[in-house]
Amino acid sequence: SSFSVDQAPAITSANNATFTVGTSGSFTAVATGYPAPTFSKTGTLPSGVTLSSAGLLSGTLAAGTGGSYSITITAHNGVGSNATQSFTLNVRDFSISANPTSVSVTKNKTINLGPIITVTSLGQFSGTVILTCSYSSTDGTSGTCSLSPASVNVPAGGASSPSSLSFTMSN
């Protein structure tokens, strides 16, 4: 014969997840314990995202919901104390990409890299984008200017902005 021992819940899953505006995201909260715990949360999630009693955090992020959301997840099974976890949902609202990310240059020559840097909004964003170009040379006459970061996702939210912005880099 077999028997079960009641066990208080303990949350074992990660304390954060990252979703992206305009796409469907999901994360599953996991907890040990017997009987199997159910989940609930306190705090505010972005519009369109919910936490089910089975621990599934899911939804499609609406425009303008970029940023970080702090909630407390609670696992409950009626045995001992509830388990709680401080949890952060990060919502990415725009991406930056560059192509090419590296260009060869020659000393005392001006080059126009063209509109290679694009900021693409996945919803709405505001804020400041800072790009760094580092130059390295082995012989002192030519070298490579590499854009850093070449690709980055930034949580942001705020006022309406154009759907994309382009930058031109020269020398």
Explained architecture:
- With about 170 residues, this protein is an all-beta fold.
- Helix content is about 0%, strand content about 50%.
- The strands form four sheets. Strands 2, 5, 8, 9, 11, 14 and 15 form a seven-stranded mixed β-sheet that branches.
- Strand 8 (about 65-75) and strand 9 (about 85-100) form a beta hairpin.
- The protein starts with 6 loop residues before the first strand and ends with a strand.
- Mean pLDDT is about 75; it is low at about 150-170.
Overall geometry comes to elongated
Order of helices and strands: EEEEEEEEEEEEEEE
Structural class: mainly beta
Total helical segments:
0
Mean pLDDT: 74
Helix content: under 10%
Weakly predicted, low-confidence segments: 148-171
- State the total count of DSSP E strands: 15
β-strand amount = over 45%
> What is the terminal-to-terminal distance?
78 Å
Short synopsis of the structure:
The chain has 171 residues and is mainly beta. It contains no helices and 15 strands. Strands 2, 5, 8, 9, 11, 14 and 15 form a seven-stranded mixed beta sheet that branches. It has a three-stranded antiparallel beta sheet with strand order 3-7-6, with no helix packed on it.
